[in-house]
Write a structure and sequence with these properties.
The protein is mainly alpha-helical. It is 85% helix and 0% strand.
Length: 93
């Protein structure tokens, strides 16, 4: 595979992963906007499932060499920060 095609695949992979991360972040923001209980079992299950799925996608992309491990960690760390803000906002409520 030529370098140009590899770069294109890397860009697409990163774009798809960040789009999935944005969907999860939107779930977190909806919870923050409504300050509904973040310990709701349904919310926790959905978020855990989404986060686990994204981490598996990231691992797969790393193994294929489409993204760097640090890029994947950055995506997950960003979501974890938002989740932490949600919990802080709820406990300060």
């Amino acid at each position: 595979m030529d370098t140009k095609a590899q770069a294109s695949f890397q860009e697409k992979a990163f774009g798809l992963l960040t789009a999935d991360a944005d969907k999860i972040a939107q779930l977190i923001r909806v919870q923050m906007d409504n300050l509904t209980m973040p310990s709701c079992p349904l919310y926790e299950e959905v978020l855990d499932t989404q986060m686990f799925g994204l981490s598996r996608e990231i691992d797969f992309a790393v193994k294929l060499g489409l993204i760097e491990r640090e890029q994947g960690k950055g995506i997950l760390n960003s979501l974890e920060k938002e989740l932490s803000l949600l919990h802080e906002a709820y406990t300060d409520k």
